[in-house]
Automatic annotation (TrEMBL):
Residues 186-313 form the Riboflavin kinase domain. Its EC number is 2.7.1.26, 2.7.7.2. Keywords: ATP-binding, FAD, Flavoprotein, FMN, Kinase, Multifunctional enzyme, Nucleotide-binding, Nucleotidyltransferase, Transferase. This is Riboflavin biosynthesis protein.
């Protein structure tokens, strides 16, 4: 899969564009079932028209540029994970457009000229609510009107479950609530966080439950605090585990607000410091709590571990 990072003004010469594209366009945070419908449409149109499939996404999140946000934005799928998901779906090309103040000032007509026509896009697929150009003035109706027959347009209708529209906002709320099953239903897969194993306080091993301390990739959205049944991918192999997300109140000063993500990996005994891993989140077992001593904590962890084992047995 070809990945190109574009800025405005981009350096691509329309005369050098040999490939023609069927393009899915959107921010696509989460690459959830609604996004997948748009991308699948673009792939189908590419096959139909005998051209290459492509996805255009944006980085960073427009709200950072437009809203002047001081706080960090956390993504359901950080950029690299998003690109990996596009690859798994069979997309041939990805255009990552760097979202800047100048890019945000483009009129809808300019956006279409520089990022549709100049890229030799022959078909555009997007969700019904996709907007483009300064102040989001461009919509999919305008995308059609301004085509002059140069490209086709597919507008993908609202994708909903029995409750409401499938959206990144809903998924974020489910993750915040620890409702991993509902998040997975909208994503079409378990929610996953990439990260690296770093040194922690090593207290787990002293009580018989060694844990891998995970430093999540920059910008990753972390589920609400609690204890979860998870799977962790280490060197291309998945292992079952129990994860605690929180502030370890049994041991820590209540004023210490350093969030930790610790995974006790079942049937595993290797040194994996520095390894890149992926944590897949499946079910919230309980909320984080403070225990009155080591023994009661150990008893609860054993209970959590057994619950996770049972959960994955029922899943397989």
């Amino acid at each position: 899969m070809n990945v190109e990072h574009l800025r405005y003004p981009h350096q691509l010469d329309p005369n050098d564009q040999t490939a023609a594209y069927s393009l899915a366009v959107g921010f696509f945070d989460g690459v959830h079932k609604g996004h997948q419908a748009v991308i699948k449409n673009a792939i189908e149109k590419a096959q139909e028209l005998n051209i290459e499939s492509a996805v255009m996404t944006f980085d960073p999140h427009p709200s950072i540029v437009l809203g002047g946000r001081k706080e960090k934005v956390f993504y359901i799928t950080p950029l690299q994970q998003k690109i990996d998901l596009f690859r798994k779906m069979g997309v041939q090309n990805v255009f990552v457009v760097h979202f800047t103040s100048d890019f945000a000032k483009l009129s809808p007509e300019e956006f279409i000229q520089y990022f549709i026509r100049d890229l030799n896009v022959k078909h555009v697929s997007a969700g019904f609510d996709f907007t483009f150009g300064q102040f989001g003035k461009g919509n999919m109706e305008m995308m059609k009107q301004l085509s002059n027959g140069d490209y086709g347009v597919s507008v993908i209708n609202k994708q909903a479950d029995e409750e409401e529209k499938i959206s990144s906002t809903r998924i974020r709320q489910y993750l915040q609530d620890g409702d991993m099953e509902s998040a997975a239903r909208l994503l079409g897969r378990a929610f996953k966080v990439p990260g690296i194993v770093v040194h922690g306080d090593k207290r787990g091993r002293t009580i018989g439950f060694p844990t891998a301390n995970i430093q999540p990739s920059e910008g990753s959205f972390i589920p609400g605090t609690g204890v979860y049944a998870v799977r962790i991918k280490i060197q291309d192999k998945w292992y079952d585990g129990v994860c605690n997300v929180g502030y370890k109140p049994t041991f820590k000063n209540p004023n210490d607000k350093q969030l930790s993500i610790e995974v006790h990996i079942l049937d595993f005994n290797k040194n994996i410091y520095g390894e890149e891993v992926v944590v897949g989140w499946y079910k919230r077992i309980r909320s984080e709590q403070k225990f009155d001593g080591i023994e009661s904590l150990k008893a609860q962890i054993e209970k959590d571990k057994n619950e996770a084992i049972q959960y994955f047995l029922n899943l397989s």
